[in-house]
Amino acid sequence: MKKIFSLPINPKIPPDFIKRNFVGFLNTYKDYIYDLYFTCRMPPFTQDAMGELFVSDEHTIIDQALWIRDKTGIPLSATFNNIYVRPDQRNLDMWIENYKSLYDAGIHIVTLPHTSWVSTGQIQKEYPKLFIKNTILRDVTRPNEVVELARAGFHYVNLDRDLMRDRERLLEIKEAKDYCEEEGYPVKLSLLVNEGCWGNCPIMTEHYHYNNTRQGSEPQYFNDSISRVSCSKWDALNGVSALKAANLPPWKEDWEEFLDLGIDVFKMHGRESGLRLQESMGIIERWVLGEREVKGGLTDILFPQYREYMDDVDLKERPIDVWREKIKTCKFNCWKCNYCDLVYESGKGNNKVNPKVPLLLDAIDNAQKGSSNYERIAIDGLTSNITRHFLNNLCSAKDTVYLELGCYAGSTFYSALQNNEAKGYAVDNFKGSIAPFREDIVFMGYDNPKEEFEKHKNDRVVLIEDDIGSIDIPEKCNVVFYDADNDPISQYKNLLHVYNFCADEFILIVDDANFEGVVESTNDFITTKKLNIIFERKILTTVPEDVNSWWNGIYILLLQK
Q1: Which of 400, 410, 401, 455 lies closest to 430 in space, CA to CA?
Q2: pLDDT tens profile 282-308
Q3: Domains in the chain, number
Q4: Are 10 and 143 within one domain?
Q5: Residue 159 carries which DSSP code?
């Protein structure tokens, strides 16, 4: 058996999952797992390319990794991949000093971003048992780079993911690997095989630059509004994205070809995505089961989602079979090929993009530009103009029935309906008072917010004065804005009740996504009701109560019952 999978440890997954599921999985399949890599942050590496901030501190993350290692016997690999940390002598000395406790704990595999550091020989002198990897962010694509990295002292080279569709270049790199072996500095080769990013992504460098240089409470790239122009938009609008992603093809036989081409280890994704980690675990499981016993041909495909392209489409030659050969040499030159589009369009399981997805994307984009049917409304409220524009854009769609939970005096509610034909239900018990957290925000508020709300009522507006858990709405709402109690337990219960008044397909917007537990509570509701997520977008803010951005963040979903 070959240990060919490098699997991540995800510090965000619940401890119960680690103890009950993850460790058991690792012990079952450890004969196939090369190592477990994990995010490691210590000076000078206080941030990394994934960009996520963890609730637990770095010490806790390391302790968790060591605990998993002790329970499974699988070696650990500490990941330091921030290429924007200055490769100077001071930072090298700092890293060497800070790594000692990890080395003494038996963590003898490490990913480092700087060739100059390794070339000095200082790391090897201080830690002679250390096995050194390069970071995939260095985009190694040429045979000479492999040779020079091996000469510098790297034992393991993460190749650029795009090479999976350049068979000619991989053969050249294998030749370079053989040369290194002959010269006395052997090197292992690895490919990241299921990241899901578009091949030759033009924004990837900017994405990693953003994450590696973010500070404090700044959201990671995909939770910042700027990411609206990149893959979150492409994936939503293009059903063919799975075929153009830098993933290995779904057939186990094809993965074995990569082993013959000199690849030693398949690096699996999921260091900060729970869903991607579960996908990686599923791939390993299907790989092993396929070696033992294939029942009904179910384990020969490592990515089950590709099966929709494998149905008989009454063609002499299945497009997916032609695609399988084309991608070996296509180099992700999609501009002159477009065969992925043909495969997608020919499949029986082909589903066109949901028409509400472009509506949502345009609503976000236009809100950011300050564009909608909304004009200034003289109602004081704790929100931002971007949020007002966004809600107004959503309510501009034909046959919109809008439900706002927590309307106060109607600042966002009437902004949403202004110059639109939508019907609106507003819910509030008008108990208590509201006030900003920030002292610099001028907010006068209202002694009687209900009275202020009713000043602006028309025949398209229904006000329900009650607790959310007691309301009854006579028609189904297709746009729901939750701006009420964001205590996770209360929010969860409220959403469960409101579910009864939602259309079979509805847009859910949850305010204050920055706050702890808000997104998680929403996802718990989605899981409980077994809703299908058609579109998901989380936008967070750096500054709390940001009147020039999305206030306290927003969570946007298109859900289907």
Answers
A1: 410
A2: 999 999 987 444 444 445 688 877 777
A3: 2
A4: yes
A5: B
